[in-house]
Amino acid sequence: MRIKFLILFMLCLGNLYAQEPAQDVEVLAQNVTKNGTLVHAVGNVVLYSPKYLITADEAYYDYESGDLELFGNITMLEGLEYASRSGHSKLNLNTDKGIANPLFFFDEGSNVWIKCENAILNPDTYITEKSIVSSCNTQDPDWKISFTSGEFNKESKWLHIYNPVFYASDVPVLYLPYFAFSTDTKRRTGLLPPEIGVGGSEGFYYMQPIYFAPEDNWDLEFRPQMRTERGEGIHATYRFVDSPYSSGEITTGYFKEHSKYAKEEKLSNDAHYGLRVAYDRSALLSTKYSGIEDGLWIDVNYLNDIDYYNTLDSDSSASTKLVTSRMNYYIKKDEDYFGIYAKNYIDTYAKAVKGTNDGTLQELPTLHYHHFSNPFLLDNLFYSVDYKAKNYTRQEGITAFQNEVRTPVSLYFSVLEDYLHVNISENVYMTQVSYGNDSDNGSSGQYFNNYHTISAYTDLSRGFDDFFHTMHIGVEHTVPSYDKKNGTWDYTVDPTSDNPLIPLEFEEKNTAFKFRQFFYDMEGEKKLSHAIKQAYYYDREDKYGDIENDIKYYLSDRFYIGNTINYSHTFHHLSRNQISLNYKDALYASTMRYTYVDKSYEKNSEDKDYSYVTFSAETHYFENVDLFATINYDIEEDIFKSWSFGIKKMKKCWDYSLVYRDVTNPKQTSSGADSTNKKGLMLMFTLYPMGSMNYEFFKQESEQKL
Q1: 163 and 138 in contact (C-beta within 8 Å)?
Q2: Is 202 helix (H, G, I), strand (E, B) or coil?
Q3: Which of 173, 184, 642, 704 could be cross-linked to 157 through a Cys-Cys bond (beta carbons 3.0 to 4.6 Å apart)?
Q4: Gyration radius of the chain over CA positions
């Protein structure tokens, strides 16, 4: 017969000689006896206290002193986070001090467990001897660390271990005199995983991030680094959240080259430094005033040369010589939108060659007003207004201020019982530009055009026995009615050129035909999509623009083949051809794309051909293993722009990635822009929750002219 024995012991407030406050304790067991203040429980013992839930085969509890001794199959739950198993334990419930031998301890939050021969239990710490720690399966763990002694702090959740030996399965791989890590997965101050590498001319590379998180709404990260053959540097990032709908970060850094390296590589600067300020706020005035929507986005960048990006870490590199800073703000209410935008450019090539960025054109600022489309006089007559004021400025060279206005008015209706939809629009475009600085006597230019468009389209669909077909057929006819241009318009379209960017919009008389269709099977799965576009220009010598044909065939919901071609009627050949194969399911994902762009292609701004192949593939076929590869091959130049392949093995308590890659990083020399090609291997492994470590070494480095 199961006997329940309830012990309630409260110290009187007037007992000034009490050493420790007692706890309310409830003991359940098959057999319970009491001798004075000592309770003896045997058989399926369950003990409840405000802090613990304990089960055991046998227990002795002195409710006056708080001493508890447990025997056999002891399980102890401490709150919701910690659990332990032992064969014999002594614990004072008033002081939370005791011993256990042997002990198995488990941290629920991190899945970390510790197994030891002896343990000293304290209110905030467990001190263990002859121990093993891991987060893998307890039987034959994939990795483990054995150590002679250690201390786990339950408050800070840090485990300090002495004389640890790291094992991969049962094979020892590393010994350290001391090691510590946190089992807390929450954001906290500490060391982040380091980056380690060995690279040809740069030597041994080591970066150790140091993370500070004193408050919930901001943190700070320092990243000191060394490259034994190149130099040393430090970068820092400050991140903050200043409201429920805004956040930002500030990154800055400095890297000092060794004089020998800078001389051998012919670098334009022996020190690289920079600053980036980013801020995103999805609501500003809208938090104070109802009925409006607004947003602010800032991305400000400054650097002394492009190599600043190449020294941020082992992976960073720059892809363009032009460094852009942006600031955008908009506010919208009902039918009106207002925006202010700014762009600032740093031409790193000009800074290297000319020593100044004063000739680079800046867009500071652009003002934008837009009145959304609304009915006017009739329910189906719509109008809108769009206005922009652009200020192009710089210290040296021609500047410009441009005003632009667009005012389309559209009439929409349908006929033939809604089978045919018609849209007629009248469009007015006006712009005025005033030049300054080095222009001739403050010259200016004015441009006005007016054009009409009429479009008609129909959307049809029909079901057949084996498939379902939808079709869109449309035609749009554009007729310029008035066009007048006077003043000066002889400037090019490049912020790094000697002349300002002056965009003009004009329409030619043309008729454009558009056709789009889709085929579906009877289960509703898409099988084929096809679109074709063709424009006819009445006033051109070559009447026909490029015809564009896009087709995708879906062999299944996982695999489709696509082809997009542009055919030039003028040159009688393909001006653009892109073929793509795409496959994705639960185990495999792959994309291969071939692209050819001729210099005759309408949207090719460069006077040269492009031909390249890109490929990416990934598989999860093997359990807990990913294999992946990427290729970017330039057929015209007969070089691999980049390629990589690797493996990632993932398990519950650890993972690793091994990647071989070929990368090209630009660098800035005293004579302009060059590049460095690096080929090498990167190893990254993670032990949960200890963190990860990267190790990278390059087999080969070579210089290339851009």
Answers
A1: no
A2: helix
A3: 184
A4: 36
All residues at 6 or more sequence positions from 600 whose CB lies less than 8 Å from its CB, including other chains: 568, 570, 571, 573, 575
* pTM of structure: 0.68
Q: What is the pLDDT of residues 298-320, one digit of tens each?
A: 999 999 888 888 888 766 655 56
pLDDT at 673: 54
Which is nearest to 610 in space by CA: 638, 635, 630? 635
Q: Name beta bridge partners: 453.
A: 425, 478
- Cβ(295)–Cβ(329) under 8 Å? yes
Residue 97 has pLDDT above 90, yes or no: yes
Contact 508, 539 (CB under 8 A): yes
Phi/psi-derived region of residue 541, left when phi > 0, alpha when psi is between -120 and 50, beta in every other case: alpha
DSSP 2: -
DSSP code, position 357: -
Q: In Å, how far are 429, 486, 613 from 480, measured between CA atoms?
A: 11, 18, 41
Q: Which amino acid is at 51?
A: K
Torsion-angle region of residue 286: left (phi > 0), alpha (psi -120 to 50) or beta? Answer: alpha
Side chain identity, residue 9: F
Burial class (CB in 10 A: 0-12, 13-18, 19+), 692: middle
Tally of CA atoms within 13 A in the half-sphere of 645 that contains its CB: 6
Closest to 36 (Cα-Cα) out of 69, 63, 3, 16: 63
**Per-residue b/e over 293-310, b at no fewer than 16 CB within 10 Å?**
ebbbebebbebbbbbbbb
| Beta bridge pairs of residue 683 | 658, 695
CA distances from 50 to 62, 73, 78, 251, 357 (A): 17, 22, 10, 48, 70
Say how far apart CA 153 and CA 181 lie, in whole Å: 11
**pLDDT at residue 192, as a whole number:** 79
Task: Count Cβ atoms below 10 Å from residue 425 Cβ, excluding itself.
Answer: 18
Residue 3 pLDDT > 60, yes or no?
no
Q: How far apart are CA 373 and CA 383, in angstroms?
A: 5
The DSSP result for 159-192, as a single string, is: EEEES-EEEETTEEEEE-SEEEEE---S--SEEP
CA-to-CA distance for 180 and 161, rounded, in angstroms? 6
**How big is the chain, counted in residues?**
706
Backbone angles phi, psi at 306, to 5 degrees: -70, -20
List the one residue out of 298, 271, 295 whose CA is nearest residue 284.
295
**Cβ pair 567, 559 in contact under 8 A:** no
Q: 150-171: per-residue pLDDT in tens? A: 999 988 888 999 999 988 888 8
Question: Residue 664: its pLDDT value, please?
Answer: 65
- Residue 136's alpha-carbon distances to 111, 133, 694, 703, in angstroms, are 8, 9, 21, 46
Sign of CA dihedral 124, 128, 134, 138: negative
At which residue do the structure tokens 């087709």 appear?
551
